[in-house]
Amino acid sequence: MRRHLLSVDDVDADEIAALLATATEMHDVQRRQVKKLPALRGRTVINLFFEDSTRTRSSFEIAGKWLSADTVNITGKGSSASKGESLRDTVRTIAAMGVDALVIRHGASGSAQQVAQWVDASVVNAGDGTHEHPSQALLDAYTLQQRMGPLEGRHVVLVGDLTHSRVFRSNVKCLTKLGAEVTAVAPPTLMPSGVEAWSREAGFATSYDLDEVLPKADAVMMLRVQRERMAGGYFPSAREYTVGYGLTRDRLDVLGPDVPICHPGPMNRGLEIAADAADAAQSLVLDQVSAGVAVRMAILYHLLAGEDS
């Protein structure tokens, strides 16, 4: 594995398989009474988050601590960036303290790549604008594999606000590398620009009709409508979005009880996903949260522990 994890492009199919195999072992730690491994003792991991986060930040913190690393959380509002300090000066200041890894979330696409050029520490992209979120894609793949087995030939449907979703971009890359068939579904206003050329190159399908695609799905992932990134009217009303693209109670019946339902969170209940679907027996939403700690433990282990460990 390379020194950084900035994109799903940084790992090939074999490396993804190795990460997920390690995550399986790390997942066992969560079931222990004493949740601690010595693998990263003496290492320091900084979680630097310029955007709000519950799941990603907490799971990276827990992952580092369960591997015995010294973990420090810094938010954008709690850093000198709030006083006007540049991102470059902020990360170089942190790196000068001798840290081993920097987990960063930032609102600008490409920010993680830029940070990796400024510091000697390993950099993990925890979400950069609308670009990528590689650890989320890895934990989503892990969650689906735990439920469904190998993903090769499985049809995974991604539904929702694709234009603003970094989770969508990382998941398409990860799932196709693992051999899954992927269909991306969204209203025309939330389908990314240039997606037709990208879909041909990457090998996934697109559709504007959820009801046509849903009966053929082996798994479905609902993506959050990111209203905080929307400056204009991407759809007429919340009700019309739900009618056209929400996982409603009626669509839940179409899926059947054995088709897994995923959502990276946070969920807009009643908008992109009904409460019946979010809380259904086939829902893997909380499984994804649990998997997030194991997969992020695996990422930090592979980046920092080295092959000799």
Explain this structure to me?
The chain folds into two domains: about 10-135 and about 290-305, Rossmann fold (3-Layer(aba) Sandwich); about 135-285, Aspartate/ornithine carbamoyltransferase (Rossmann fold, 3-Layer(aba) Sandwich). The protein is an alpha/beta fold and about 300 residues long. About 45% of the residues are buried. Helix 1 packs across helix 5, helix 1 packs across helix 12 and helix 5 (about 135-150) packs across helix 6 (about 165-175). Helix content is about 40%, strand content about 15%. It has a five-stranded parallel beta sheet with strand order 7-6-5-8-9, with helices on one face. A four-stranded parallel beta sheet has the order 2-1-3-4, sandwiched between helices. It has helices spanning about 15-30, 55-65, 85-95, 110-120, 135-150, 165-175, 195-200, 210-215, 240-245, 250-255, 275-280, 285-305; strands spanning about 45-50, 70-75, 100-105, 120-130, 155-160, 180-185, 205, 220, 260.
* CATH secondary-structure class of the largest domain: Alpha Beta
**Poorly predicted runs:** none
How far apart lie the N and C ends? Answer: 14 Å
CATH superfamily of the largest domain: Aspartate/ornithine carbamoyltransferase
Give me the CATH architecture of the largest domain, please: 3-Layer(aba) Sandwich
- Overall domain count: 2
| Backbone shape | globular
Order of helices and strands: HEHEHEHEHEHEHEHEHHEHH
Strands side by side in the biggest sheet: 7-6-5-8-9
Let me know the average pLDDT.
Answer: 94
Percentage of β-strand residues: 5-15%
What class, by secondary structure content? alpha/beta
Strand element count: 9
